[in-house]
Amino acid sequence: MTDQSPQAQVESITKAFEQDFGRFASFSDDPSALSSLGLDAALAEQRAVTELRTRYLGKKSDLAAAKKLIGRVAPEERAGFGQLVQATQDKLETMLDQVELSLRNYIEAERTARESIDVTMPGRRPRTGHRHPITLLRERLEDVFVALGYAIEDDREIETDFYNFDALNIPENHPARAWQDTFYTVDGFALRSQTSTVQIHAMQRRGVPVRMIAPGRVFRRDTPDPTHNPMFFQVEGLCVDRGITMAHLKGTVAEFLRRMFGPDTVTRFRPSYFPFTEPSAEFDFSCFKCKGSGCRICKNSGWIELGGSGMVHPNVLRAVGVDPQEYSGFAFGLGIDRMCALMYELDDIRLLFENDVRFLEKFE
Ligand SMILES: [Zn+2]
């Protein structure tokens, strides 16, 4: 460029600009060129025009450099060259201004159109969620026991050996530790394998007499299959007072099952063994589906096995400083997931934890 005359330099600036400006020219001449553009493309073109203005009219542009030559051209050419530079600048500015104005008007109109609301269009209804079937069942259980005068207790899911085993009369090397095998941390903590741990915390905190249920998560080292999951929900009940007998236990469990499954529900107890109760019993109830005549749910027995129970072992009372000569109590526990699977006739308990929305939606 330096070997050109100043006039020729300005002319080649104009030429280069006209070439670069070409694709924008139609925006100010022809309104339909804009209408086919769309908002996003128009915004991009607006930025491109701003860049073009900087490139041709900015402080570092060739035209700005040409302006500095005005003082150096021969005095007789100076006025003519000055006018040429000014006229070129005016021309470029006018062309850019026009195209910018067209783009700005178009963008504004497009935005207004986009933001206007058509009140006749059907709305998009937000999908409301609902509680998980386990939560719904847990709340029903809680309602029954609150009505019977029980407090709801909640406690930690990670425990020391004392709360998970020792205080529940399961000393080290006791075989019950094997079927309650759970997950351990490297520093000796265990994920609780039963909600019975809450009994111990509650008696330590509240003292006796106490009436409480503890619904919550428990953990076992089980391989998931249709009836097992390494994490599941239990509810534990405890009643300790002076003069509590097995009759109170049977009456409470029977009343609970009547309130859950209807007034005709029959309960039966079978002798069993648990380390933390003595005597111990498992309890079954008459099948809510076939009323005892036999069906798929009760495996044709007419009875559904639900949970374990018993009189609190004196060692458990001693572990929390309660005198078993003065106080006695009963405890019971059952699996909420298992109960949920029974009530909704689920073939696979894992459905409750896979969080498939198509399944969960059925419990609305
Ligand atoms: Zn049945």
Work out the strand percent: 15-25%
Alpha-beta content class: alpha+beta
Q: How large is the radius of gyration?
A: 41 Å
Mean pLDDT: 89
Task: Describe the structure concisely.
The chain has 364 residues and is of the alpha+beta class. Helices cover 46% and strands 17% of the residues. A seven-stranded mixed sheet has the order 1-4-5-9-8-7-6.
Topology:
Blueprint: H1 6-29, H2 31-35, H3 39-57, H4 62-68, H5 75-115, H6 133-147, E1 151-152, E2 158-159, H7 161-164, H8 176-179, E3 190-191, H9 197-206, E4 210-219, E5 231-241, H10 246-261, E6 267-274, E7 277-286, E8 303-312, H11 314-319, E9 328-335, H12 336-343, H13 351-354, H14 357-360
Parallel strand pairs: 1-4
Antiparallel strand pairs: 2-3, 4-5, 5-9, 6-7, 7-8, 8-9
Helix pairs in contact: 1-3, 1-5, 3-5
The structure holds zinc ion.
Give structural attributes.
364 residues, alpha+beta, two-stranded antiparallel ribbon, 14 helices, 46% helix, binds zinc ion
Overview of this protein structure:
- The chain is of the alpha+beta class and about 375 residues long.
- It is built from 14 helices and nine strands.
- The structure holds zinc ion (ZN).
- The site of zinc ion (ZN) has 8 residues, from loops.
